[in-house]
Amino acid sequence: MSHFSSEDEVELQGLLKSLLRSVSERISGAPSVECAEEILLHLEETDKNFHNYEFVKYLRQYLERALGTVIDEETENCMRAEGQAVTSGQDTLVHAVTRRTRESAEYKEMMHTLKNTMMVVVESLINKFEEDQLKKEEMHRKKQHEQSGGPYLDNCSDSDSSFNQSYAFITHEQLQVIAEKLHQSQPKEVRWEALQLLCCAPPSDVLSSESWYSLCRSLSAALADPDPELSEKVLRFFAKTLSSSPLNVTREIYVSLAKSLESDFLLRKLSIAAGSAGIDVNRPDIARLLKQMRLMNDFQKEVTSYWIRHPEKYMEEIIESTLSLLSLQHERDAGMPSTEKVLEPIHMMAMLDIKATWFKRWMHGSYSRTVVLRLLEKKYKSLIVASLQQCVHFHKCRGPSGEEVSDVTHMLGKQHIGPVQRTLYTTKELEYIHFVHSLCLLGRLLIYTNGRSLFPVRVKNRKDPVSLTDLIVMLIDTMYQHPKPPCGSLSHADSLSPTSLVMEDLRTLCDRTECAVQCLYQSPVIEALLAPIIALLRGEQAKVNTLETTLVHIADILARIATTRWGLSIFLYDTNLISAEGASTSAAHIIAQFTKRLLAENLPPLPGLGASTAVAGAFVFVCRQMYNTCVGLQVLRPYNLHECIVRAWRQACALAERVPTPVLGAAPDPCSQEAHDASLWAETLLDNLLNFAATPKGLLFLQQTGAMDECVTYMFSRFTKKLQVSWCEKFGYGVMVTQIAATAPGVAALRRSGFVQAIVVDLWSALECGRDDARVVQPRSTPMEPIDRSCQKLFLALVNLLSSSYAVWELLGQQPLPNKAEYSHREMPTSIVDLVDRLIAINSDEKIHSLFNYEQSHTFGLRLLSAMCCSLDSLLLLESQYRVSETLLQNQKDNTSDPPTGQREFIIDGLSVERNHILVRMGMVGGPSERRLPPRSLEKGADPYPWPMFSSYPLPKCYIPDIPKMPRTKGDTEMSHFLASWKGAERKQMDQCRLQYVKVMTSQPSHLTTNGMADLLEATVLHLSSSPSDCFFPLAEFKGGDSTVTPQSLTPMEQLGVQLTIRYGDHLGLLEGGSERDLCLLVTHCRHSSSDQQAHTTSTLSGLRGRFPGYDWFAATAFLLMSGDRERTWGFLLRFSSLLASAFLWPARLRAAAHLPKELARSEIPPVYSCTAHFVEMLLKAEVPLVSSAFQMSGFTPSQICLQWLSQCFWNYLDWMDICHYVCTCVLLGPDYQVYVCVAVLKHLQQSILQHAQAQDLQVFLKEEPIRGFRVTDYLEFMEGLERTYRPVVLEDMRTFLLGVTANSTQSPGTFLNMESQ
Fold first, then answer.
1. Cα–Cα distance between 979 and 996 in angstroms, integer?
2. Longest dimension (CA), the chain
3. Mean pLDDT, to the nearest integer, of 712-717?
4. What's the chain's Rg over C-alpha atoms?
5. Looking at residue 76, what DSSP letter applies?
6. Burial of residue 673 (number of CB atoms within 10 Å: 0-12, 13-18, 19+)
7. pLDDT tens-digit readout, 726-738
8. Beta-carbon contacts of residue 149 (< 8 Å; ≥ 6 apart)
9. To which H or E segment does residue 1056 belong?
10. BROMI N-terminal domain: which residues (predicted)?
11. Are 425 and 281 in contact (CB under 8 A)?
């Protein structure tokens, strides 16, 4: 054990003395002894140099010598007891070693020795301090006797005391003497000596003295004294007090400093004479004021970090004294020349803190902001008036010219008041500094509600008060006259330019919705922003200094406005602007016209603006913020921006390819830079073109440009780098990928880009390989969830990718499984077919043995299969092509035990439970009450899984609930009476039929039986098809006969679809014997009829090669509605095919039909997606915004799930009667009701959607779960409300879309105005 020698004690005494000297300032600033103790106890937490003190280093070495061996021994003992290395249990080991060391005898002996030694050292220091104090008192007595003066205390001796630089206590009598000696009447030497003594006294003693107020007056007088040494000494005392004292002390000092400055400015009116060079900061009176103002400003910026810990009155005194000083304004004397400039405190503050940092910090916290705004409103509004007056003056006089402003900002950026002194500020510089400070102050006010409530403000020489809108318009105009300096790195001088300051304020307002609504989303502001654009479109010269730079700034603000819902609404539907042609129009149309002019080379160039890709790219980006929304695309559709962008992109690509061959040693070729710029421009255009894929209809436009592959490849390159879509997008490319994957051309482009392969490889790495960089210390824990969290994101990505049956056809159609005889562990799947082969269709031991984590990986595959099978067309493809159900049944059969009784029993485990669920889902069709799906989890109790398992079809009876037989009689109802009396083809009777239908649906929906609805549909279609005005397509003619049709002519998918339909019809009691052949004939007739009307197209897409790849679910629905009557069904379908509704309710009917525009027919994007789903997303954002946001955050799209629902006529999602109601409603009330039904369903599911979006399984929920509790009749009133609001646009667009006509979205702007304002 180490003991201390006498030499050690002497060394410790010196080290401790050095430590106390280092922290003397902290201790002396403590208001009490207790506070000083707290400072020393927490010195390690607050002093960054703590471990560098020699005293601390000495103690650390002493501990190492005394306890090092003990710590090593205890560490070995603990590690030996645990039997493992220091890994995750390191914290536990440290605690154990610490506890045992503190309990050891060595530790106790060390502490005893250390305490005794330190007591001796401290006692020696105290004795020495007392000796030093006695010596000082003796010396003071002698000095007092010699000078016959009062009793002073000198605290600045050079004695060797450890506290010789700390404060000594001072009595009130001594302070009274100091106050008397500081009086202005005393000689300079006496005042100087008094200040010397005052600086050595603790500030807390000075302020608590009864003499403080007389001291304060004397100090203020000394601050204003012409003698620089005296005022400098007082300022040093103030600075020392402000830096080391608590707020209750410093606020007195600060307030006295502010009042002293205010008195000084009132007594001495400083001015800059006309014709003088400016203000010289070396002038003694100016230099003295600047130093005092700098001290104030430094304190203003620091005090915000701790004044919340003190009473509000302290903070209020500081704020009020500041505002009082800065609000000070001199009245101009009658004889003063108008050109003479009066120097105010605000000018001084602006010179020191040009961007009003102090005010920004005071306004940042609510604690201080409330006080500032209250005082500004009640007492010091003159400060706001003066700031606004300065901005108005700068704008009205147009300020200095652009070159002069650049010179001023350049000079201000090079030198500041500081180590590199500049001695002269010109009048123009002073004016500009005041303008910048005022603009920053006003910009901060506009951010807050109570700050904006201070407006309007009256200023001189202006008839009307300045409102918020007036101020913003004025700032925009200021930006036009003083554009930003040439582009490059933003220097300090650039940041002081008017344009940079205005843009900073405008961007800040854009980022805050409430501010933007009050300040920016106003017609005069939008008009001011678009004024240069309208002038250019008219062929006039824009009234701006630098056109290109200004236009880029305008586009920046417009893009920020367009990203918000309110901003987009004012762009699209506020028609207060006057276009170049003189007609009223909206901002969106002006921006689109201008962008089209910028992109189109065949149009005359805009005056004063060359071929600027920077301006064109900026305005394309503004348009992008509109066309990447459904409502914005609807308005901008007439301008065909996608065609303009793709033409410009192709031209840029052609120019970028003209790169000359580099020659060694040759000078750089200007053509190389031109090609490089063209390449960047092409990438910008491609990025903007890609964003058309954000909406269903935009994706169709993108497909029609022929640039789908290039856009998807570009997106994949950014997706792999995890880059954002743009600076204003909150989410990545997840939603866009999902949107693209919903269509056949989109998923084909994803496959060609490598996106599909990348997902498969990443999934396999996560499932089977694990992370390469993971250090394996212990085995990975067994996942408790069916899908491990590390794979959840990839699982959802695959669900999104394979959600659409079109995607499944493209990725799996006509591609057999490898089914290899041997699989290597290093063999990695690279396609969806490989994934199905390795994870789903596991039909051999080789496949099982090739998996490191068989159960986890197969469970993943089964969950993916379950999500895919929810799409009935995907189910039919998997079943017809891969016989998936046979593989699963065989797996169930193999997963049995062989007990002694001889009766085989199923082994209940995670995989068998998953397979049982999928087999029931695949083997039975029905709505929420028409089938029972077994759970995927075990229950508590003796029988954890009471549901029977099976290894062959048909399903056990327990999965097929008994449902009441559908009544076949028409019944004696109002609707049947109406149909019986319906004669003729008058439109009035059709309207009466609709009214009667709505009445029955809302009051007596049970009276509408299946047969009754069949009669209603038949009569309605007969009436509509007989009216030329209601026929949209020519009536189909079928040339084949029944003799040419056999069930064998059906595709395997169609045969399976027929079997599913027959089983469903039998279960509902709708069919009789012999229905299967009739349905086969009906499906064949429908296919032949659509083939006769099909356009001749050449495509690489599997969906456009040969037959329609899916099953005709609408024809099957009609067959069941007509109770299996083939002739009746066929007649209904033939007549129905001439109606507009058939294009949306009957997707198989219009596959690549000759009736469609060629571009639409070749796209392989069905109208139900590009039109119906498009409007669903648009209406959902307006009517159910929470659901729309939930989809956005989940990376899933409403269009994908709606496409699945509508493609299979809601089979498996709604009960049969609701499916019939859906069909009848859309046929009778109009095809636009298809949109309203989907919106009503999503509104019904709102609560569940929000919950599952939070649980991050929204995709799986919507695909796998039926729509429980939804009744068409319950939401008919809601849908009628949607019809009244949106039909003029939705129904008209459905018509024009199929005709290939561009709808004129300017006819009814009020329709969607209600959408965005809700």
1. 10
2. 140
3. 92
4. 42
5. H
6. exposed
7. 766 666 788 889 9
8. none
9. helix 1052-1068
10. 12-138
11. yes
Which amino acid, 1119? Answer: F
- Looking at every residue in the chain, the average pLDDT score rounds to 83
Alpha-carbon separation of residue 270 from 350, 351, 353, 437, 1053 (angstroms): 16, 15, 20, 20, 95
Max mean pLDDT among 166-175, 540-549, 959-968, 1192-1201 falls in 1192-1201
Query: In this predicted model, what pLDDT tens digit does every residue of 49-93 receive, in sequence order?
Result: 888 888 888 888 888 888 888 888 888 787 766 554 434 444 567
Q: Cβ atoms within 10 A of the Cβ of 478, count?
A: 20
Which phi and psi (to 5°) does residue 341 adopt?
-100, 125
- Chain-centre distance of CA 51, in angstroms? 43
Handedness of CA 1089, 1092, 1093, 1099 (dihedral sign): positive
CA nearest neighbour of 1049 among 1080, 1071, 1028: 1080
In this predicted model, what pLDDT tens digit does every residue of 634-673 receive, in sequence order? 999 999 999 999 999 999 999 888 766 555 655 556 667 7
Integer Cα distance of 435 and 405 in angstroms: 12
The answer to whether the CB of 526 falls within 8 A of the CB of 587 is yes
Q: Is residue 1129 within 8 Å of 1119, Cβ to Cβ? A: yes
CB proximity list for 493: less than 8 A, separation 6 or greater: 409, 410, 412, 413, 414, 485
Q: What is the distance between the alpha carbons of residues 104 and 836, in angstroms, rounded to a whole number?
A: 65
Residues near 106 by Cβ (< 8 Å), separated by ≥ 6? Answer: 1, 66, 67, 70
Q: How far is CA 890 from CA 381, 843, 861, 918, 934, in A?
A: 85, 8, 16, 14, 19
Residue-level pLDDT at 420: 47
Q: Measured between alpha carbons, how far is residue 632 from residues 435, 643, 1169 in Å?
A: 39, 17, 18
- What's phi and psi for 896, nearest 5 deg? -130, 155
Q: 995: Cβ–Cβ under 8 A, 6 or more apart, which residues? A: none
pLDDT at 1042: 56
DSSP 191-229: HHHHHHHHHTS-HHHHHHSTTHHHHHHHHHHHHT-S-HH
Neighbours of 962 (CB within 10 A): 7
DSSP tag of 897:
E
Residues of the chain with pLDDT > 70, as a percent, come to: 83
What is the CB-side half-sphere exposure of residue 1232 using CA atoms within 13 A?
Answer: 20
Whether the per-residue pLDDT at 1040 is higher than 80: the answer is no
Nearest to 209 by CA among 42, 983, 219, 636: 219
| Start-to-end C-alpha separation, the chain | 80
- In angstroms, the CA 1318 to CA 1314 distance is 6
Query: What does the alpha-carbon distance between residue 728 and residue 778 come to, in Å, rounded to a whole number?
Result: 44
Q: At which residue do the structure tokens 């005394």 appear?
A: 66
Residue indicated by tokens 């009276």: 1007
Angle at 1114 between CA 1052 and CA 928, to 5 degrees: 95
Query: 1262 falls in which pLDDT band (50, 70, 90)?
Result: very high
Angle 925-1132-965 from CA coordinates, rounded to 5°? 40
Q: How far is CA 1069 from the centre of its chain?
A: 52
Q: Which amino acid is at 549?
A: T
User: Any bridge partners for residue 584, and if so which?
Assistant: 578
Task: Output the 3-class SS for 765-819.
Answer: HHHHHCCCCCCCCCCCCCCCCCCCHHHHHHHHHHHHHCCCHHHHHHHHCCCCCCC
**Highest-confidence segment of 33-42, 246-255, 771-780:** 246-255
CA torsion angle for 913, 919, 925, 930 (degrees, to 10)? -30
Strand (E) or helix (H) holding 380: none
Count the Cβ atoms, other than its own, within 10 Å of residue 412. 20
Cα(301)–Cα(917) distance, integer angstroms = 66
